[in-house]
Amino acid sequence: MPALLVLLAVTAVWGVTFVQVKDAVAIYPLFAFLALRFAIASGTLAVPGVVRLRTLGRTGFAAGVLAGALLGAGYALQTAGLERTTVSSTGFITGMYVVLTPLLALAALRTTLGRGAWLGVVLATLGLALLAGVHRGSLFGDLLVLAGAAVYSLQIVLMERYAPRYDAIAFTLVEMLTAFGGLLVIALALRDLSFPHGWTVWGALLVTGVFASALAFLAQTWAQRRTTATRTALAFSMEPVWAAFFGFTLAGDRLGATAWIGCAAIMAGIVAAETIR
Asked: Which of 24, 66, 220, 235 is the most exposed, having the fewest neighbouring CB atoms within 10 Å of its CB?
């Protein structure tokens, strides 16, 4: 239960940042924004994390680099899609990792799922389908977000294997540094990197860098020492619920009764996965 509560708190942070990020990348280059986001995340974890890096060894360091590369790729795809579609639509499609993660876990880790987990996946998938009623985005933007969701699913599956083996702070720091390095190279190649101005961009950078990246992925690493990839994905399926809620309250997106029923179905799926064995 503590792991579930931590993951649900993470999804709330991610949900509110959809609005901030969409506003920020409308006036500041995408890859420059992402590079600075993960630079701030790396700086946040550097003080407690640097001295712990030696505990990872070569294998742990390589695993952190792989997880960080997946994070960087996932965020690049998701944020590029967010530029072209709505906040609520992005949240909904990102939530498709609730479907993709157990399938990847079965294929990659040969994991078995209990009745509660399968019921949770079914209910959450139904909820996501109902929540699709808020969709008003573009096809290309939606496809980019879907590709990002697939990459996130793979990262969640890999964390089930790696999180229990390594120090959470050191591992997350390597993830953040890797994502920063890859995105910085792209931003420099595109000549997008410039000093950001205004609270819209700086506010989004600070919130996403410190809370939605450094602390959020540290929390994920900690939680996945205590729960499975499938249950993590089910908890993360609350992200589109939060995105829809904040899209409604902050960005003017509109939710109908069907969409709210979808939100309830997602929550029911999480409860089923945690209570039915």
From this structure: 66
